[in-house]
Amino acid sequence: MTTALLLGLLGSLGHCVGMCSAVIILLDRQPSFRAAPSRQNRSAWALAHAGRITTYTLLGLAAGALGQTLISFKLPQAILSILFSIFAFYFALAFAGLAPSPEILFSGLIQRWGLAMRGQRPASLHTPYLLGLLWGLLPCGLVLTALLAAMASTNILQGGLTMFVFGIATLPSLLAVRWLTNQMIARTWSRSFVSLTMMLIGFQFAMRGFASLGMVEHFMLGSFMLW
Description:
Layout (H helix, E strand, L loop, with lengths): L1 H27 L2 H4 L3 H35 L4 H19 L11 H12 L9 H8 L5 H12 L3 H14 L1 H5 L1 H4 L3 H29 L7 E2 L2 E2 L2
Antiparallel strand pairs: 1-2
Helix pairs in contact: 1-7, 1-8, 1-11, 3-6, 3-7, 3-8, 4-7, 4-11, 7-8
């Protein structure tokens, strides 16, 4: 849960502010948001975020189920931990600008997603909750990282809870996105900090995998097993 919380809180400050600001502007132009009075507009945004977090949770359940399936096929959890650490290091480098952004791999899907959001739809699909469900399907490197953590949990419910916590943790940055998009210094600082945090998380998962394979000793910090 700590991994999901840190990814959501820190990653959203350095990543989602840039990527989702356009999404928020797009949603603001939808009839169900634009035509609503102030109180109803807040309700619309609450439903949109609820839809986004619902999608994350469902994806987390699927990722946890995949991890649980891999374990049932005798793939050691140690291997999943090491694979997650590799992806975590890569995304950390991408956030720091030292590696290509993972979103490049999904550029075609992102364009199709944008067209779907802007396209003509029946009025029923303009509802904030359904728009939030679509928002959750936006291809995103940070979400993919969180899904890898959900898969590494090797448990369906744990995977869903991991993504639920991740979604909740992204709320502060997304709720303040109009202010944060103008805070370039804070954004640069946060991207560096989240890169370091992800490297530390990747290191912990790698050491956990190596310890499970008997290559290094488990390390205890008091009563808490760090790896």
